[in-house]
Each structure stands twice: as C-alpha cells, then as structure tokens.
C-alpha cells in the first residue's frame, strides 16, 4: 500500500545542489553509465549458458530477459518523479514512499546493499583474474604471482579512484569502461567467427546426471538474468540529470536507457549465439579461454575487461558507500534523538 505522505524530499535542483553535485548530466551520460553498470565480464559466459539451454530455449530466455529488464528500467525511470515536485534520488527514498518512512529503509537498504557489495566482490575477483591472465600472456618470462595478489593489486587502483567526490566525477571512467565492454565483446564474437566451428562441434545437451543438469540449467538462467544488472543504480544515474516541469528528467533518461539497451544487445546476442555456434557444448565458462589465438588480441581483450570492471566497480561503490554511510549516520542520529527524550528514572 502506498504511503499517503511521502518522505521529505528535496524538491528543486538548486536546493539539491547545495549539499551534493549539480544536476548537469546529459542524456548520453545515462547511456554509458547504464552500459557500465549492466554489461560486465558475465557476457563472456553467455555461450556457456547457451550450452545448457540449447538454441531454442537459450535464445528465447535472452530475448525475454532483454525485454523484461527494459520494461522494468522504464518503470524505475517513471517512478523517479512519480510525485509532482519530488525526486526520489535513492532507492531507500522510493522505499519510504512505497512502504512508509520506517518500514521502507528496512525493506530496501539490506537488499540493495547485498546487491552492490556482491557485485563489487565479483568485480574484484574478475578484475584480478583478467589482470593475471593479461600479464601471463604479455610477459612469459615474468614471475608468476598468485591470483590473490592480483586481486589486491586491482583493489589498490580503487584507493585512488575512490577519492573522486561524486557520481559525475567518474563520468570519464564510466565512458572508458563502456567503450571497453563493447570492444572486448566484439573481439569475442569476431574471434569466434574468424575461427569457425570446432571440428565435430555438437549442440546436443551435455551428458550428466539429472540432478546436476537441473542445477546447471538454473545456473544458466541465473547467468543470463545477472547479465542484465543495470537497475541497481538507475535512480542514482537519473538523479544527475536536470529536470523541469517542461522537460522532466525521465525524457533524457529514457533516451539514454534505450541507447544503453541497444549497445547491450550488440554486446550480448552476438557473443552468446556466435560463441555457442563456434564451440557448441564444449564452450568454456569464459569464451576467451577457447580463443587462444591470436595471443596478443586475447591479452588485449583481458585488459579491456580489467578497465571495464574498474568502471563498474566505481559505479557500484558510490551507491554502496552512500548506503552504508547513510544507514550508519541515520542510525546514530536516531539513537541520539531518542536518547535526548528518554528518562532513565521514569
């Protein structure tokens, strides 16, 4: 049931900019921010998901997931200004409006924090693995380091980038990440086309036990669903776009989201379908592993993945850190407020 009294919100761009970054983003900012948040290294595992679903079901799930998530991101864009004069810049604010000022944060914040932290952990591991792979391919005589060391090296990059003050300041990083995602996706499917199908390629379902196959199918469905993961920061992205009664922010935001989904389709569908066409049921969970030649190109693709997950990590960590700080500060503020009116001798 929708609350009759929405939470106290900042109703104008001028007031909002006093305590935060100005709303000066253009529609194309939302395009590459959304691409950065959505397209990840998981695109390289889509052929592996196809191997367990097959041509028909796999293609259908890809198309349905693309359509459903495009519709749901449209819903989120509309909800950003569903109350006249109010902008819900954060998920917890929208949760307060939907479930009430007290219950809303308890429903929304834990789930969003789990998603953001979980994504950042995946990005850390993926970035470390791809950085390790790049160095091993680029320098055969170099000393081999453990993967955990490469993860730490990848994490140290964010000590510098985390000093950037706001979401607008990572626009350059996000743009570079979006370009890299399109680049390594293109390398993956073009490499598969140039290589052609492997000898005796088979598109039959993998032979395994019924229980194992069932779990593999659910895992494949999860991989495809997880691939469309840009919703976690859509409100924060829209919050950087100016809005007026004549031109509300939902217009440029939707324009940017459509552009982002077009780029996503260019990345996802060729990699999933052509990768499965080339390797069939023998495709690895990272299609770049199957593509061993030319070595320099595969090394470059791994480096592109590193650059991309750097941008994706920053997009998620800005939201995640805000949630943690807002929750902590808000909790302390409520404790202080309650303690000031509490009598120990009542």
UniProtKB/TrEMBL annotation:
Its main location: membrane. Residues 1-23 are annotated as: Disordered. It comes from the Eukaryota. GO terms for biological process: amino acid transport. InterPro entries: AA_transpt_TM (IPR013057). One of its GO terms (cellular component) is membrane. Pfam families: Aa_trans. The chain crosses the membrane at residues 27-49, 55-77, 258-279, 299-325. Residues 24-325 form the Amino acid transporter transmembrane domain. It is found in: Membrane. Keywords: Amino-acid transport, Membrane, Transmembrane, Transmembrane helix, Transport. Signal peptide: none annotated. This is Amino acid transporter transmembrane domain-containing protein. It comes from Aquilegia coerulea (Rocky mountain columbine).
């Amino acid at each position: 049931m929708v609350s009759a009294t929405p939470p106290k919100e900042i109703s104008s761009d001028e007031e909002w900019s006093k305590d935060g970054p100005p709303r000066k983003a253009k529609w194309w900012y939302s395009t590459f921010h959304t691409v950065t948040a959505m397209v990840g290294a998981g695109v390289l595992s889509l052929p592996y998901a196809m191997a367990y679903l097959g041509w028909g079901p796999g293609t259908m799930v890809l198309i349905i997931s693309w359509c459903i998530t495009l519709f749901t991101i449209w819903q989120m864009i509309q909800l950003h200004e569903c109350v006249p004069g109010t902008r819900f810049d954060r998920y917890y604010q929208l949760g307060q409006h939907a479930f009430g000022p007290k219950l809303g944060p308890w429903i929304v914040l834990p789930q969003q924090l789990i998603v953001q932290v979980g994504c950042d952990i995946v990005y850390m591991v993926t970035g470390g693995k791809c950085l390790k792979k790049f160095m091993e391919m680029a320098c055969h005589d170099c000393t081999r380091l453990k993967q955990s060391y490469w993860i730490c090296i990848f994490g140290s990059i964010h000590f510098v980038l985390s000093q950037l003050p706001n979401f607008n300041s990572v626009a350059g990083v996000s743009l570079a990440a979006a370009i890299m995602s399109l680049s390594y996706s293109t390398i993956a499917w073009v490499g598969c086309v140039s290589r052609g199908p492997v000898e005796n390629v088979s598109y039959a379902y993998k032979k395994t036990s019924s229980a194992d196959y069932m779990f593999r199918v659910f895992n494949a469905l999860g991989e495809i669903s997880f691939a469309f993961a840009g919703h976690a920061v859509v409100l924060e992205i829209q919050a950087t776009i100016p809005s007026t009664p004549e031109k509300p922010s939902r217009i440029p935001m939707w324009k940017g989201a459509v552009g982002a989904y077009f780029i996503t389709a260019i990345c996802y569908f060729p990699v999933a379908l052509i990768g499965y066409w080339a390797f069939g049921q023998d495709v690895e969970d990272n299609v770049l592993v199957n593509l061993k030649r030319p070595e320099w190109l595969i090394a470059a693709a791994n480096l592109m993945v590193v650059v991309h997950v750097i941008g994706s990590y920053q997009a998620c960590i800005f939201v995640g850190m805000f949630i943690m700080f807002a929750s902590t500060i808000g909790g302390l503020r409520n404790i202080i407020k309650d303690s000031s009116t509490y009598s120990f001798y009542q």
